[in-house]
Design brief:
Elements (H helix, E strand, L loop, with lengths): L2 H7 L5 E6 L3 H12 L4 E6 L2 H10 L4 E4 L8 H11 L5 E5 L4 H10 L1 E6 L4 H16 L1
Parallel strand pairs: 1-2, 1-3, 3-4, 4-5
Helix pairs in contact: 3-4, 4-5
Length: about 140
Amino acid sequence: MTAEELLIKRNGKPLKILIVDDEENVRNVFCDFCNSSPLFSVASVCGGVEAVERVETEEFDIVTIDLVMPEMSGLEAIETIKKQQPHLPVVVVTGNATEGLIRDAGRMGGCRVMRKPVELDQYIQELVDLAEEKCG
């Protein structure tokens, strides 16, 4: 299914994506990726604490999150987010996490992993695939 077909299936309602990364440049690139398609509406935060707060107060369709961040790690944030919203898809997007961290993220509820650097097509397709599963 293409992004356009998915948007039609959702009656024109874009998917709300929360992007979580401590690096501003990375957040900006992922926001730009999402903003290149009418399928997505984007919010971004710079850390796990902010991500948990946003998920508590807003409804998102998908969260993408880095694992290695100061203050609250991506693992801690995933664990808390999944307790709040068990069915919310969480995609790990990481450049320097160990295999052990990635396995832990999967056990805590991270449903997919993308390794940085991520290409535009790969990022968008991953989100579209997840959205298609969710809209099933």
